Amino acid sequence: MYIHKVLVYFLALGGLLSYFVAPILTSQVLAQEERVQEEAEETPEYLIDLLERSKQEHPIERELPTLNEAYVDGELIIRFHPWVPDILREDILEGIGVSDVSQYGNENYAMRVTLDMKKLSGLKGGKVSHLLKEDGHNVTITRSINTLQYAMEVLLENQAVEYVHPNYIAHAFSMVPNDSYYGLQWNLPLIGVEDAWVESRGNGTIVAVVDTGIAYENRGKYERADDLSDTGFVTGYNFIDKQGYANDDNGHGTHVAGIIASSTGNSMGVAGIAYEAEIMPIKVLDKSGMGTYADISDGIRFAVDNGAHIINVSLGGPVGAQVLEDTLVYARDKGVLVIAATGNDGNSLVSYPAAYDDYVVAVGAVRLDKEMSRYSNYGSSVDIVAPGGDTSVDQNNDGYVDGILQQTLKQGSTGSDITRFNYYFYQGTSMAAPHVAGVVALVRSLGVTNIEDIKEIIYKSAEDLGAPGWDEKTGHGMVRADRAVQLALQKIKKLQASLSDHESSDLDVHGTDTESNILQAESPIESSEEEKKETKQIEPKDDLQTLLTADTYNMFGRKDSLFNFWENAFLEVKVENNENVLSGADIQVEVLGDDGLVVARGSGKTDSSGEILLKVGTLAKGSYEAVVEAVLTGYKVLPTRVAFKFR
Q1: Nearest to residue 466, comparing CAs of 480, 478, 457, 454?
Q2: Which of 160, 310, 340, 631 has the most C-beta neighbours closer than 10 Å?
């Protein structure tokens, strides 16, 4: 198309505008000038002036803009010289395969153009695929580097173009909050919260704090902590006094809650990790910090049943109990992630519930220098570590002990004052666990909701400490908010890309149900004369087949039982007739639960490859059956059924 357009202009305007349109090499310039002189009498004076001006103002050779920085794939920023006619601009853009143009201001301002990469690929060698390795799985990332570069080369060789470059991507700078004591919170920069805040601050997540309660309200004799004034709270419960007000009379729970979501950017006090998250206060420990397994179990169940997404449990006991394990299984099956502290005994016996490693994220503690804190329990159940502090040292020489600073109830010789508050440096795995809960809230806020996917993001993004890989002292390493957020964004982008262009995706994993996937073709149904002309007739012996994939392939290269992108279920359907793909078939899918009731639906048409990837909704863990119908004009087909598990 580009070459043809060049020839059209060459013939129409006697060669003059080919100087602007066709690629010009230095060796061609003299020849072009001679031709211009020969045809000067036939060429309008204003075009000769434009040509002379372009030669004087703009060199022939220009440097190609870099493609090493982040940019929007398939987009360019272009500015033409003011003297270039509209018809020529349009022709140049059409020649390089522009499908859309966006321009702010007058016609002389730079324009943003979107390239038809398929069309451009036809002119220049196609796309480039990079085969990477991710945890042993092949991941092919396709990006149109060659074609975008080719488009810029063509444009820069054209004297009508003043400049062209990719649509580069900028990003917000890290946020440093104005809270007055933030400089003493060494723990937050240590895990990269400032960079993480650029992308997520926890909005839309609910974190339950199962503890001594929280100073979250002004009610009766209780006061709300000043540095929780802008923090959001949802209804909780007090299992000690059996009433709906989970007020803190100890101070531990308020300190823990502040680590997660202390009011931030309010020019006072300290910051929280996921300060736009909402906190659910659950009181299961009394004034002395003691509580029973029964109350703790009830508190966790209450949080699950009332909308919590994450539960922080900065407490523990020395032995396991079936009631506690059953509760943790309940939380896991409901898709709620429990974060628990390993304990402060400094030995290899992880406390319960953290020791129930199949159901919780067990968190140990490290100091400012990233060494394991001397009090932190360790062992085979440890999953990850986070800053827990060490009040016996001042490693950064700021004049204060290296504890975790937060506001809580004022402590005195007679106990906690429920109406007065101060800032205290605490240490312990109780302080480490809410760091992880806060980071999980940042990740979940971005849209990653499946707890197994969240755990994998948290573990893979951790900063490895101690022995390489997992170890019993530091687990997978120290939690990193910045890395976790970026990894979550990468997974989301991969998902979006796979859904928008699944034809070229590597998610084409087939596990065909060979016993039930044949749709028997019956005699053609009655249709209009026009439909009969367009419908390809087949004999009844030809089977219309629907090939259903029954494998999953999620963002971490792990196969499960169905397409499982976090909590959403996806079903891939392919329609063939004797190995010939059938496009335009209407697909209807119903997903049935164990009770035979419809729990999800999906519909659409097969594409040119006879395929469609259907989002059938959010499914809980369990066994299901998909009933698939394919309808094609001129045929009546029977539904296909395929059983699958979602986990």
Answers
A1: 478
A2: 340
- Residues 108-139: tens digit of each pLDDT: 678 888 887 666 655 444 333 333 333 333 33
CATH architecture, domain 502-646:
Sandwich (2.60)
Which one from 211, 227, 383, 390 is the annotated catalytic residue?
211
Residues of the chain with CATH 3.40.50.200: 182-493
Instruction: Find, among 633, 208, 227, the residue nearest to 437 by Cα.
Output: 208
Chain-centre distance of CA 391, in angstroms?
Answer: 37
Out of 252, 255, 309, 502, the active site residue is: 252
What would the two tokens of residue 344 be? 């402060």
- Residue 305 CA to residue 317 CA, distance in Å, equals 24
How buried is residue 136: exposed, middle or buried, by Cβ count under 10 Å (0-12/13-18/19+)? exposed
* Span(s) in the chain for CATH 2.60.40.1220: 502-646
Query: Does residue 195 have an active-site annotation?
Result: no
- Segment holding 52, helix H or strand E: helix 45-57
Between 120 and 281, the more confident residue is: 281
Q: Which token pair is 451?
A: 């707890």
Q: Which CATH superfamily is domain 182-493 in?
A: Peptidase S8/S53 domain (3.40.50.200)
pLDDT-wise least confident of 367-376, 508-517, 629-638? 508-517
Q: Which tokens is 454 given?
A: 């969240």
Instruction: Tell the residue number behind the tokens 């986070």, with chain if given.
Output: 386
d(CA 160, CA 298): 73
pLDDT value for 106: 64
For residue 466, what pLDDT is reported? 83
Q: CB count, 10 Å around CB of 472?
A: 15
Per-residue pLDDT, 201: 96
Residue type present at position 176:
V
Q: Which tokens is 13 given?
A: 């305007």
Residue 430 a catalytic site member: yes
Q: Give pTM, 2 decimals.
A: 0.60
Out of 381, 416, 430, 498, pick the active-site residue.
430
